[in-house]
Design a protein that fits this description.
The chain is of the alpha/beta class and about 350 residues long. The protein has two domains: about 190 residues, Medium-chain alcohol dehydrogenases, catalytic domain (Quinone Oxidoreductase, Chain A, domain 1, Alpha-Beta Complex), CATH 3.90.180.10; about 140 residues, Rossmann fold, CATH 3.40.50. Helix content is about 25%, strand content about 30%. It is built from eleven helices and 19 strands. Strands 3, 5, 6, 10, 11, 18 and 19 form a seven-stranded mixed sheet that branches. α8 links the parallel β15 and β16. Bound molecules: nicotinamide-adenine-dinucleotide and zinc ion (ZN) (2 copies).
């Protein structure tokens, strides 16, 4: 049997997204059918709509989601109908060479549902293998992580992508420790999550760098101790000044901009860490004096999904939130309906929101 539900689909490159009726099959072996309760609007959804990820239209958008398992397929014994879950795009396979070497956060073969969801008979490509701007979605069982159901779905779902990427950039990739100084370049949802992560890890100096006053004010609410407006001051000099002239132990680039990467590179202390979590475009180049790379030492670490393991990290982060130590609710700028996703893209592009979240 399949279920007819409403979903947000991008049918052509650059065309506005549409709410249409799609067909979602019952779960087969290893799959789970999830009734989506909330799904955040992320930049990556817009990238799909613009054809910047690949050309596999039509896309079923949405991937920062939480909901309730409605049914599971044959062989699924880790989940049951009624479980409250956050969806993830890192369902580790356990068999690839990264998994076998004990580094599952680099899994090369993550699991997705085997059966397609369909629009007018054609298979849909679900964004990041999820497709959660829909009343129901079909995923691999490993893409569902059970967490404490006391959390609000609109806050919990954000851990499914950008907020986890930022938290993990600080906590896991950057390994921020008590007493560290941290500078975060770009204070959108990802950068603010990196700030929240740095605070959680015990960083005592947290410098927020952005071009937008409003974004800097929000960064202060997440725990930044110093705010730097890079449109009017040199961020490298400002980070040095905030850190006793030394530079920060950990610099986190959360824009995806080569110029900002260079600033983050030079704003580090000697032997400091640079975490690259912002996603560059294929045309970007970095140009650094080779001797500076060697002479400054330290580490340069790209961060995919914050090096997280959903089953290990989501439940703990939800518990920290419920204990009042991680303000996930602050990332939710507004809740909207499925019909308002296109408008939410415009607000995102104008920098008016951290996250618009569709609630069902
Ligand atoms: N690595 C991952 O797994 C992962 C996951 C999700 C998102 N991302 C990426 O993280 C990046 C940030 O995502 P977001 O949702 O926070 O985006 P966003 O657009 O909400 O935030 C970007 C912020 O950077 C600021 N900015 C722009 N140019 C700047 C400059 N020159 N100097 C300082 N600040 C500047 C903007 O004002 C904005 O506040 C994107 O590239 C996104 O694709 C990465
Ligand atoms: Zn694997
Ligand atoms: Zn995302």
């Amino acid at each position: 049997m399949s279920h007819s539900v409403r979903g947000v689909v991008a049918t052509r490159r650059g065309a506005p997204v549409e709410v249409v009726t799609i067909e979602v099959p019952d779960p087969g072996p290893g799959e789970a059918l999830v009734r989506v309760q909330a799904c955040g609007v992320c930049h990556t959804d817009l990238h799909y709509r613009e054809g910047a990820i690949n050309d596999d239209f039509p896309f079923l958008l949405g991937h920062e989601a939480a909901g309730v398992v409605e049914a599971v397929g044959e062989g699924v014994d880790t989940l049951a109908a009624g479980d409250f879950v956050i969806l993830n795009w890192r369902a580790v396979c356990g068999r690839c060479r990264s998994c076998r070497r004990g580094r599952p956060w680099y899994c090369l073969s993550t699991d997705n549902a085997a059966q397609p969801m369909r629009l007018d008979g054609s298979a849909l490509s679900p964004a990041l293998g999820i497709g959660a701007f829909a009343e129901r979605t079909l995923v691999a069982a490993g893409q569902c992580t059970k967490v404490n159901p006391a959390v609000a779905p609109e806050a919990a779902g954000l851990l499914g992508c950008g907020v986890m990427a930022g938290l993990g950039a600080a906590l896991l990739t950057g390994e921020v420790s008590p007493g560290d100084s941290v500078a975060v370049f770009g204070c959108g949802g990802v950068g603010d999550a990196a700030i929240a992560g740095a605070k959680l890890a015990g960083a005592t100096t947290i410098v927020a760098v952005d071009l937008d006053e409003k974004k800097l004010a929000w960064a202060g609410e997440f725990g930044a101790t110093h705010l730097v407006d890079a449109s009017s001051e040199d961020p490298v000099a400002a980070v040095r000044e905030a850190t006793g002239g030394n530079g920060a132990d950990v610099c986190i680039e959360a824009v995806g901009n080569a110029k900002v990467f260079e600033q983050a590179f030079f704003a580090r202390d000697l032997a400091g860490t640079l975490v690259q979590v912002g996603v560059p475009t294929p045309d970007m180049r970095i140009d650094l004096p080779f001797i500076e790379l060697f002479g400054r030492g330290g580490r340069i670490k790209p961060s995919w999904y914050g090096d997280c393991l959903p089953d290990r990290d989501f439940p703990a982060l939800v518990d920290l939130h419920l204990q009042g130590r991680l303000p996930l609710e602050r990332f939710v700028s507004e809740t909207i309906s499925l019909e308002e996703v296109e408008e939410a893209f415009t607000k995102m592009a104008r920098g008016e929101v951290l996250r618009s979240v569709v609630v069902f």
